[in-house]
Every structure is written in C-alpha cells, then in structure tokens.
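During the reporting period the student researcher (J.K.) took over the structure-prediction task from the postdoctoral fellow and processed the backlog of single-chain submissions. One of the processed entries is reproduced below for the supervisory committee.
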Amino acid sequence: MAFLSEPEPPRLIPTEIRPGLRRIVAPNPGPMTYHGTNTWLLDGPDGVTVIDLGPHDPAHIAAIAASGRVARILLTHTHPDHLAGAPALRAATGAPIHGWGTPWAADFVPDHPIAHGAQIGQLTALHTPGHASDHVCFALPGGIVFSGDHVMSWSTSIVSPPDGDMAAYMASLRLLLGLPGTLYLCGHGPALPDPLKLVRAMLLHRAGREASVAAALGDVPRTEADFLALLYGGLAPHLAGAARRTVLAHLLKLQAEGRAVRDNGGWRKP
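J.K. obtained the following structure tokens:
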C-alpha cells in the first residue's frame, strides 16, 4: 500500500485545505498519532463545525476557539487522542458535543447522540465500527469524508479487541466503497486524494493477512506470539504490540466464522 507523508505541520495555526475548510494539528505526535491529531474546522452559515480535538492542550483549544464562532463539536470516536480536548472546548465556547450514542469511553456522554445516517448541518454521519465500536465518519456532498482513524493516509488502522473488531472493520471499509470518495480528511496525517484506491488496497491487505493466519492454523495450538513470528518477519520492535493485537483480531473473526478454535492458551484449526 502506498501511504503519504508530510513535513512537520505548523501548530496553533489553521491551514486552509480549500475555502471554508481548515486544519489545525494538535501537539500530540507519536508512533500511533503521526504528527498529531487533526482538528478539522468546517465553516457554515451558523458558525464553525469542529471535528475531533486531540489532547487537552490549552493553547490548541484556544487556537480552535479563536478560529470563529464554534457552533458544534463532532467526534469521530472517543479514544483519548480525539476526545480529551472536547470538554474544555465545550466549556470555552458553549458548543454541544455530537458523538456516537454508545461511546467507547465509559465516562463520556455526548450532548447529542449520533445515529447512522443522521444529518448534522452539511454532514451525514456514517457508523464505521472496527477500529472503535463508536467510530463515525462524516460525509460532505461531493465525496469529501472526514474519515477519522478508520482510513488514514499515513498508516493502516489498529484493530485491537475487544472493542476493535476485524469483521466490523472490513464491513465498514466495504461501506465506504459503496459511496462517492474524492477526498478523505483523516484523523492523523495529510488529506488523502483518490481515497477509494487506498480503501480497496486496505481490504485486499486485510483479506491477505486473514488468509495467512488461517493457513497457519494447525492441529497443534499456536500462541499469538507464534503467529507473530511466522507472519511478521523483521517487524520493528515498537510495532510488535499492534501487530499482535491485529493477529488476535483476525483469530477472533475466524473463530466467529467457525474456522479457528481457542485451545489451552493457543489457537488451532477446528
């Protein structure tokens, strides 16, 4: 798969992607967040719609609040690198928070619960579980999609059980394939042109990994560490944890389909 990269972006300064659409990158860079969480600012007749916040960083929140009158705050999902700053922005602006009706974060309740297909101003909500059970993409007319962590330009997404679900993730990728896609604005990394090409590649990649996991199942149980050694030769140490969670997600999908059995701390074919 061909991913994109970009130079270190400016902080605290909204960068125009196109008229009425700006991006501020939060100061939370890391191996799972790239340069940081993207906060997207969408101008509308009633004010600015803010999509995802990043960390609770006072300077970042102040930059968002200074970008225009904030009408609403939307969350693609409630992992901390997207949610943490939202309550502070709500307190600073009075703008309500919209999020999936059953959040992953147990201590969070959205002001306006979102359902699949809901219209929020110019946006249509698309429930896309897999990376997170409460993940939502937001689509504009014309094929522009705020894709959160479901599809990112710089990397594949982590699918980590129990909340991460590989069957749901692949179904959510197929959902996007059935919709127009001209530009994806991701949770991390640069904007993604021609996004459906990458969505198709991601589906093929996941299907190929699943086939490899299924082929490695034998009569004698293998541990997840065994699968990791067999399938991820030369893996960088800092990626081992994420890869192991991905292997588990594939094994659980195979188990639900009757194609794998958990046995004595390992996995084998039925």
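The committee noted the following: Residues 217-268 form a domain with the Arc Repressor Mutant, subunit A fold (CATH 1.10.10).
J.K. will present the remaining backlog at the next meeting.
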